[in-house]
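EI: anyone free to look at a 85-residue chain?
SC: sure, send it
EI:
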Amino acid sequence: MKRGSRHNHPREWRTNMKRIISLIAAALLLTATATTGMAATLKCTVTSIDQGTVVLDCGDKATTLKAGDTIKVKTEKAKGAIEGC
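SC: here you go
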């Protein structure tokens, strides 16, 4: 190797490359995990309830759901009248 070369020490160069590749891999994994964790929000109306089965009307957005999907239902809280002094 030439004196004054940028990569005088092949071991250091390999170690640095391993660190860079590890950082890139970690960034890609974080990005992939973050995008799969996002869930869609749908506003639906309960149309009927029959022996533990709830039927929802979600309009055009229902196409984003598939049979067997797990969903989380959050009801809207009724706003009561606020009385002042």
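EI: Residues 6 and 13 are 10 Å apart (CA to CA).
SC: 👍
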